[in-house]
Amino acid sequence: MPPSSPSAGAAVLWCNLGSPAAPTAAAVRPYLAQFLGDPRVVEIPRAAWLPILHGIILRVRPAKSAAKYATVWTPQGSPLAVHTEAQSRLLGDGLAQAGHGQVQVMHAMRYGEPSVETRLQQLADAGIHRVLVLQAYPQYSGTTTASMVDAVNAWCGRARRVPELRFVADYHDDPAYIDALARSVERHWQAHGRGAMLVMSFHGIPARNIKLGDPYEQQCLRTAELLAARLGLPADAWRATFQSRFGAAEWLQPYTEPTLRELAKQGLKSVDVMCPGFPADCLETLEEIAMEAREAFLESGGEAFHYIPCLNEDADWMAALTQLAERHLQGWPTRAG
Ligand SMILES: C=CC1=C(C)c2cc3[nH]c(cc4nc(cc5[nH]c(cc1n2)c(C)c5CCC(=O)O)C(CCC(=O)O)=C4C)c(C)c3C=C
Ligand SMILES: [Fe+2]
Ligand SMILES: [Fe+2]
C-alpha cells in the first residue's frame, strides 16, 4: 500500500508504562529520568523538582531499583515488556479472527522503548492514518492515561499529517474485564484453596490528585466492588488497597503493606492478593507484592499468602480486550475487501 493511500485500514496501539532496557543502574537512570521528569507524574513545580530529581533521586534510586528489577527480570526482558508484547500479538490475532484483518496492532511504551513516537512514525510510514490508542490502564488517572495522550500529542505536534485518533479513557467497569478477573480468582481458588480474605491492591497516586478531580480512586473502588460482587464476597471478605507510594506526601489509602501487616496482627492467617489495575505482571506486582508484601504478612503472624497473577495472556482477558477494541474501531475500514 503506498504511504499516501487513504484507505490503508487502521491500527490499534496497545500502550503500557514501559520498563528500563536492562536491570542495571545505567539503564534504570534514563528510564527514571524520563518517568519522574514527566510533569503528569510528579506535579511539583519544575524549578523545585528538577534539582531534587537530578541531584538526589537519580543518584540513589537507579541502583536500588535495578536490584529490584534483577529479581523479576526474565531471559526475554522485563515481565511488563514481555507480557505487553504478547498481549499485542494476541489482540492482533483476536481482531483478525473476528474479521478485522486490516487492523494492525502494535504495542508502545510511555517510557523507554518502543516509544509512542516511534510507533506513530512507523504507522505513518506504513500509510496508516487511523489510530486507536488503547492503554493498559483500566482505571483512568491523569498520571498515566493523560500522560499517554500527551505523548501522542507531542508526536502529532511535529507531524505534517496527523492521524485520525481515538482514545479509550478507561474500562474499569467493563463486564468482560471484570469477568476475566473473577474467573482468574476462581481458577486460583480451585488450584490453591481459598484464603480468608481477598486483598485487591491498586497502584497509588498522591491524595492531592483526587482533590483536584482525578477519578482514579473512584474507578479503582468501583472495579473492586464489581469484582467482589461477581465473586459473591461479603464485605468483610475483601479489601481494596493502594501500593507503591513514592515520596513523603500522602497517597491514596489504605496502603497495601501496612494493611496486610495489620490484618495479620489482628489474627488473619491466610490471604489472597491480586492487582486488578495491572493487566500485566511487572516490578510492582512481582517484587513489591509477591515478594515484599508476602514477607510483611508472614512476618506479622500470617501463615499463608497467595499472590494471584495478573491477567497477562489470559484467554478471557484477551477476548475482553478484543471486544473493547472492536467497539471503538466501529466505522473505520477494518475488514478486507
Ligand atoms: C511519583 C510517582 C509515581 C506515580 C504517580 C505513579 C503512578 C502509577 N504508576 C503505575 C504503574 C506502574 N508503575 C510502575 C513503576 C514505577 N512507578 C513509579 C512512580 C510512580 N507511579 C516508579 C518510580 C516506578 C519504577 C520503579 C521504581 O523505581 O520504583 C510500574 C512497573 C514498571 C515495570 O517496569 O515493571 C507500573 C506498571 C500506575 C497504574 C500509576 C497510576 C495510576
Ligand atoms: Fe508507578
Ligand atoms: Fe514499587
From TrEMBL:
<dbReference type="InterPro" id="IPR033659">
    <property type="entry name" value="Ferrochelatase_N"/>
</dbReference>
<protein>
    <recommendedName>
        <fullName>Ferrochelatase</fullName>
        <ecNumber>4.98.1.1</ecNumber>
    </recommendedName>
</protein>
<keyword id="KW-0627">Porphyrin biosynthesis</keyword>
<keyword id="KW-0350">Heme biosynthesis</keyword>
<keyword id="KW-0479">Metal-binding</keyword>
<dbReference type="GO" id="GO:0046872">
    <property type="term" value="F:metal ion binding"/>
</dbReference>
<dbReference type="GO" id="GO:0005737">
    <property type="term" value="C:cytoplasm"/>
</dbReference>
<keyword id="KW-0456">Lyase</keyword>
<dbReference type="Pfam" id="PF00762">
    <property type="entry name" value="Ferrochelatase"/>
</dbReference>
<comment type="pathway">
    <text>Porphyrin-containing compound metabolism; protoheme biosynthesis; protoheme from protoporphyrin-IX: step 1/1.</text>
</comment>
<dbReference type="GO" id="GO:0004325">
    <property type="term" value="F:ferrochelatase activity"/>
</dbReference>
<comment type="function">
    <text>Catalyzes the ferrous insertion into protoporphyrin IX.</text>
</comment>
<comment type="similarity">
    <text>Belongs to the ferrochelatase family.</text>
</comment>
<feature type="binding site">
    <location>
        <position position="284"/>
    </location>
    <ligand>
        <name>Fe(2+)</name>
    </ligand>
</feature>
<dbReference type="InterPro" id="IPR001015">
    <property type="entry name" value="Ferrochelatase"/>
</dbReference>
<dbReference type="InterPro" id="IPR019772">
    <property type="entry name" value="Ferrochelatase_AS"/>
</dbReference>
<feature type="binding site">
    <location>
        <position position="203"/>
    </location>
    <ligand>
        <name>Fe(2+)</name>
    </ligand>
</feature>
<dbReference type="InterPro" id="IPR033644">
    <property type="entry name" value="Ferrochelatase_C"/>
</dbReference>
<keyword id="KW-0408">Iron</keyword>
<dbReference type="GO" id="GO:0006783">
    <property type="term" value="P:heme biosynthetic process"/>
</dbReference>
<keyword id="KW-0963">Cytoplasm</keyword>
